[in-house]
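Dear Dr. K.,

Following up on our conversation at the group meeting, I've run the structure prediction for NAD(P)H-dependent oxidoreductase from Shewanella pneumatophori. I'm pasting the input sequence below exactly as I used it, so you can double-check it against your construct before we proceed with anything downstream. Let me know if the numbering doesn't match what you have in your notebook.
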Amino acid sequence: MELVIVSASQRSPSQSAKVAHYIAEQSSDFTRINHIELNQYQLPFWDGEAASKTANNSQWPLIAKQIKHADALVLITPEWGGMASPLMKNFLLMADSQDTAHKPALLVAVVSGISGAYPIAELRMNALKNNKLVATPDHLIIRNVEEVLESQEPNSERDLHLRERIDYSLHMLAQYSTALKTVRFNHQNKPYPKQQEYSYGM
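The predicted structure tokens came back this morning:
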């Protein structure tokens, strides 16, 4: 199974990328892991037209190819002003449901303080309607991120519990990935009549 981890900080280096690297190291249930750090790509802000995705030497086709082959995704966003990052929201707007539909996604918020719930709520509420990604019931909020996942060994009890929660969330993501393969197969090979009339969420 192939996992794609998307980190969406607009800074480099970033704590979101640090979390992505840690998750990649722990994702032993997946045979191939790709990390897409969005700020490393030249991407347009989507204007609603498909042609804009590839205009002006956009590197979106490189990302789309990885998403198409993925069996599951991890979406990591910093919390800025109580919101998910513009890069993450732009990524989700550009994602084609032909590449993302019925694939599980683990949502991860990264925050320097003790908040972090708002980006998760935002992504669950309005970010997955048309791309038809399936957010797993579990999500992760990496609070006080500068104090955790800093070394190979946990440096506190909180760090240990967080690492155990990450392991559990990745295990469940792999389970959803396996289960949703059947849904994707049936969606492609036993389509619902007039299926394309329902390509957008209500």
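Two things stood out to me. The first helix runs from residue 15 to 26. The mean pLDDT is 95.

Best regards,
J.T.
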